[in-house]
Specification:
This protein has 239 residues and is α/β, with parallel strands linked by helices. It has 9 helices and 8 strands. It has helices at residues 39-44, 49-65, 81-85, 100-107, 125-130, 151-157, 170-186, 205-212, 219-230, and strands spanning 3-7, 29-33, 69-72, 92-93, 112-117, 139-143, 191-196, 216-217.
Length: 239
């Protein structure tokens, strides 16, 4: 086994690069559903305590299957980073936001790290603190879906908006997301790096970097790093 991924209890497709779509990753992935934990309960509901036990069960099942590290499919799982890391005996990476403190060190104190979440209002201090982010430090937060600027994402993830058969057009999603992310970058001239919270954003990270040319951290970079730590590669060369 390679990486175990905890999924929310919902059904929708993911573009290549989305954590839900294993086809784009060069290592084995095993999925496990956190039963009863949908996006409404995980992201929107203020009381998240009912989510903890199903997430713990999913993590334990992945560990029993032999997964070398465990991640999740939504950045808002950050809320449970400490609890799940303490519940299993393999490395746990519940959110791409774990990369924010590292990114802050890379850019230095005079620049900020942009955290681009799916929805800014639902990303609380509790989420940030759980993954080691110092509240009030050199970061800024934006929301890609706020104001209805990414309707293709709503067609996939928003239960009361999406069609009966969830679907989205890649080109439109890329165009809308890139425009929002570029605007976020331009609002903060001192932004030295950007961390993409959502597991649905990595498919567009390369296009975004082509526009703003700063370091981009995403679920893709986190999973690559997680696997390299849990299953270190060998080296071949010449002396």
């Amino acid at each position: 086994m390679g990486l175990g991924i905890i999924l929310v209890d919902d059904v929708y497709p993911g573009f290549p690069g989305d954590v839900r779509n294993a086809s784009a990753y060069p290592f084995p992935i095993q999925y496990e559903i956190a039963e009863g934990v949908d996006l409404q309960k995980l992201v929107v509901d203020e009381d998240k305590s009912p989510c903890l036990e199903p997430v713990q069960h999913a993590a334990r099942r992945l560990e029993r299957m032999g997964c070398r590290a465990i991640a999740a499919e939504c950045g808002y799982f950050a809320y449970f980073q400490r609890e799940i890391a303490g519940h299993v005996n393999v490395p746990v990476l519940m959110s791409s936001l774990l990369q924010v403190p590292w990114a802050q060190q890379l850019v230095g104190p005079d620049k900020v790290v942009g955290i681009l979440a799916a929805s800014r209002p639902f990303l609380s201090d509790a989420h940030l603190e759980a993954v080691g982010i110092e509240i009030g430090s050199n970061y800024v937060v934006g929301g890609a879906m706020d104001g209805g600027r990414c309707p293709e994402f709503e067609n996939l993830w928003v239960a009361d908006v999406r069609p009966d058969l969830p679907q989205a057009v890649y080109e439109r999603a890329e165009r809308d997301f890139t425009a929002v992310a570029v605007d976020f970058f331009e609002e903060h001239p001192d932004m030295g790096a950007m961390v993409l919270e959502c597991t649905g954003f990595p498919p567009f990270a390369r296009a975004l970097q082509g526009e703003i040319d700063i370091p981009i951290f995403s679920w893709g970079t986190l999973l690559d790093y997680a696997y390299s730590v849990a299953v270190h590669r060998d080296y071949y060369g010449h002396v």
